[in-house]
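Bit of a strange request maybe. I'm writing a small parser for structure token strings and I need a real example to test against, not something I typed by hand. Could someone generate the tokens for this chain?
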Amino acid sequence: MLKRHKIKKIAFESTSIYWLLLHDLLEPHFDITLANPRQIKAIPGRKTDAKDAEWIATLLVNNLIKKSYVPPFQQRQIRELCRLSRSLMSELLRYVNRQTKVLDQWKHNFIKHFSSYRTLTCQYLLDGLASGQSWLELETKAPTRRISNELARKKKFLTPIFTNDFPRSAQTELQVLRNIQKTHRQEIDRLAQEIEQLSSGLHWDHKIDQLTSIPGIGKQSAIALYAEIGEVAKFPSPRNLVSWSGLAPSVYQSASKYYNGRITKQGNRHIRYILFNCVLSSLRRKNTELYQFYQRLRKTKPFNVVRTAMMAKILRIIHHLLRYGDTFTACPTRKRNRLRGTST
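Reply from user aminoacidic:
Good idea to test on real output. This should exercise your parser:
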């Protein structure tokens, strides 16, 4: 029917996931414009579907709609799997916090005596506590010498904790949470394998190597970042990529008054989430240029501001590497100085 009426251009809003099927069906036959709902808001108080369609058509005819970026189908598949993996990781953290809550409630929180919740000894004690084992059984049935030695070193701290009563209801709750955690971990690992296979099929290996050369970015983060960004040719400059990710500062101007505010956050929030974790990871590596950049800003800026600046800096580096085919460790000094915004 659309072809019979000689329709050549179609525009619609990118509302949730409902536009995906419509876009894939119509894209081979028409010029599709996917609009950001934030940018095409009509007059408030007059919202109906018919008026919305009329307003979008008016904007389209007058070329007033900026097209949103729609990645290729295979890239969208990897992107969705990466987002699902991050969602499962968030849920996993929630169940970990629930376990800590159960231990605190019944005065069995021994996690504070270990360097991390994820240590083998800590996991062994949690499983033993969930199955109702006593401290004597945990000591004698330690699966490895390393766990046995650590239990012996911390016996004076752990023995009073495990002598407290731990009711059956708490054991059941902890056991359920442990089972859910293990299931989530298995699914996250399976997703990681599937994502790597799909990305290898698209010949992303060189791109991933370029991104992993940046301190703080691992393989999974590199795949997720490239799945979100795609080809950087659509971004004329690093500033455009930073703005598209919602990390550009807000601009307020009136007459001769001009100042910047907080970041807009009007962009890809998934990129910001990935970069946030990459920044925290990069701060663990002291002898890097990114850490030097952090120390230089931290003298005068609060941590949240410096963290955001590092996220934007990593994005600018990513744009440069993907555009020119370099790796971060192989960049000449002149190019590195240009990335820092200085000259040699």
